[in-house]
Design goal:
Elements lengths: L5 H17 L9 H6 L1 H25 L6 H34 L5 H11 L7 H26 L4 H13 L8 H18 L10
Length: about 200
């Protein structure tokens, strides 16, 4: 890792590790009672997640920075699109829902039920659902393209496979276990890539 600045290493490794741990803490439970009880944490969980999503996009961007390969260019464009679409989804389905449930805490039981019914299916077949699908699709494209780019630049097979896994795992959603596996795989791949950066050949190992 001595080949790269400390700040760059922190920006590459820190966000995926933080998100991998953060997703373990995603609020659980279903139904009106659980929604109201967890509304404060549901709101703040997604408030914290929003900047972490932007930072993890930067992590992926930095993994391919300086690589002239076309796959690297595709990865950088795709991860920028992921940050935009997934953040919009997270703000609507996470922050807005949590805020609505928080506001319902002091309402009557009937009003709480009405708020819950209006928000529980927000991620369903709607614009929010489309934002989720498009954002996750760009994540998969970015990670697969990054895997191809670093492999062509001489990276070992391990990080190549882990980056693809990181892309695929997020298709299962961002809460643990899928989200933790996705961002955890990215973290391990990034550590591996940083440790082997100095000895990398220009052709695949």
């Amino acid at each position: 890792m001595k080949h790269h600045s400390t700040a760059r290493v922190i920006l590459i490794l820190g966000p995926p590790l933080a998100l991998a741990v953060h997703e373990i803490l995603h609020p659980r439970g279903e139904g009106l009672k659980d929604a109201i009880a967890s509304s404060d944490w549901f709101f703040w969980f997604h408030m914290i997640q929003l900047p972490l999503v932007a930072l993890v996009a930067l992590s992926v961007f930095l993994l391919t920075s300086g690589l002239p390969d076309r796959a690297a260019t595709i990865s950088r464009w795709a991860i920028a699109a992921f940050a935009a679409f997934f953040s919009a989804y997270d703000a609507a389905a996470g922050i807005a829902t949590g805020f609505a449930w928080r506001q319902a805490q002091d309402m009557s039981a009937s009003d709480q039920a009405a708020v819950f019914e209006a928000t529980k299916d927000m991620p369903g077949l709607s614009l929010i659902f489309v934002l989720s699908i498009v954002g996750t699709g760009f994540w998969v494209a970015a990670l697969v393209a990054a895997a191809i780019a670093v492999r062509r630049n001489g990276a070992p097979k391990g990080p190549y496979v882990l980056l693809i896994m990181a892309g695929i795992f997020l298709l299962g959603g961002h809460p643990a276990p899928a989200g933790t596996l996705a961002f955890g795989s990215l973290f391990v791949a990034a550590v591996w890539l940083e440790r082997t950066a100095g000895s990398r050949a220009t052709t695949p190992a």
